[in-house]
Design goal:
Length: about 110
Amino acid sequence: RNGKILKMGSKGIRFDKNIAYHGFALYADKKGLEHSWIVNTCGYPPEEVSLISVEEELNRKISHEEVHNIVKNKIKEQFNYSSLITISPKELNHLINKKEILQYVKT
């Protein structure tokens, strides 16, 4: 838009002790972008890329809960999952350390 690349989120992957952690961030509202000036977004010069939030693109307020539910439902639909669970990073580390993560993995 206006000659700039628009970026509404980020994705990442990390490997640690034979475990792959992956995820993404979706910029739901303008507040989440307040400190974005600190980061050189994906290595692009600032004149080539702009960060934009879901709120700005929709031109309306949207709650984090609404964004989360939409994304969760789209993932279920796209991958034909019957359900998804949400756990915190702390809960995930606990499950990994106790080797209980396998109860959540279909084989």
